[in-house]
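User: These chains co-purify. Model them together.
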Amino acid sequence: MAREAEGTLSRALVEQIVREVVTSRLADLAGDVPSRLVVQASSRHMHVSRAHLDVLFGEGYELTPERPLYQEGNYAAKETVTLVGPRGRTLQLRILGPIRRQSQIELAFTDAISLGFDNVPVRLSGDIAGTPGAHVLGPKGMVELKEGLIRAAIHVHMNPDEARDHGVEQGDVMQLRVGGDAGVVFSRVHVRIDPRARLNVHMDTDEANACALHLATEMELVTEKRGKR
Amino acid sequence: MAREAEGTLSRALVEQIVREVVTSRLADLAGDVPSRLVVQASSRHMHVSRAHLDVLFGEGYELTPERPLYQEGNYAAKETVTLVGPRGRTLQLRILGPIRRQSQIELAFTDAISLGFDNVPVRLSGDIAGTPGAHVLGPKGMVELKEGLIRAAIHVHMNPDEARDHGVEQGDVMQLRVGGDAGVVFSRVHVRIDPRARLNVHMDTDEANACALHLATEMELVTEKRGKR
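Assistant: Joint model of the two components:
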């Protein structure tokens, strides 16, 4: 970049300078600066299939987005349902949209135990074969899920660029180190790579409370040596 | 050890053999074999002072031990009280005995949040200065605690021999690594040394649920390098 003459700047030169600065900032945003890590606690919730939504809320019912989630396209819906435990105790569950191929209920163990479910496994979202079922009540009807109750395994969403930056691939596990008064390292944070993803750890409320997420002063996502390829 | 005569053993020799075997076993127990690590989840509970027990249950009331705890002399009492949150919600709390110099209530964050307490700190037991207070109801009266609500910091009880074996001193922190499906490392496990202690990690229900303690297959107490002296 050259000045045309001492003390004066042509319009073309100003434009060129602006262009260079903006391009450099965009380059920072695109790759040179690591993506900001957002760590979030997911409260208990339900993902619902088309068929189950029909039963719970009525034929052809559409979910009403109430609040967008950090992962684009996902939202907390206005709609809630009632989960009935084996001893008749109940908990309210918010539905997260959009609808999915199969219904799934994600509980923290604290929730599961309070309801009397003693056999909920730790699973990745979508991997529900052989998990316990439950009864779910909506305003228009009841669904008996044959399976679908899980405690969601802690996981990190990221796009392929972020995965490359961290040296991880789909299915790897990473560590999340949370500092502060509690001080907890989550050793098995499952990597889920998607082109539309934003760098984002999802843990449940037990995990958030165990590590005192609301008081945490440092958080770091760490690639374990054995995770590198 | 010598035999007196082929095929026969005098009473004195038998006694000597028994004495040697027993001494060797005791040596194993005392130092050569590591103590068995017992990791336990503490549900929400209250420790109560003499003055508060008088108000809650009546003048001169004595706690009724229901179940001994692993640390000798401590017990879960038959007695429970009702903790009232800032928005009128309540939770039942079991009292742990024996009585203490000052009352203290230990909640998991899940409990605290469900009651509406949003400022409960992570503290070591006994360190309650400046912590939130609460109203507690017993069958004979109500106590307003000026302070005493904490989320107990995860800690390990051990005797001086076990501390020496682990290379730690009073006030150090250690790691507790919990394997299994969840996989959590607690990085700040506070060391509490007492001659009467039995090797025992106490965590709260959030921590137990976060690490899936009921499913955990491996647990290891680790002395961090910076903890060594």
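Confidence is low (pLDDT under 50) at residues 1-9, 23-28 of chain A.
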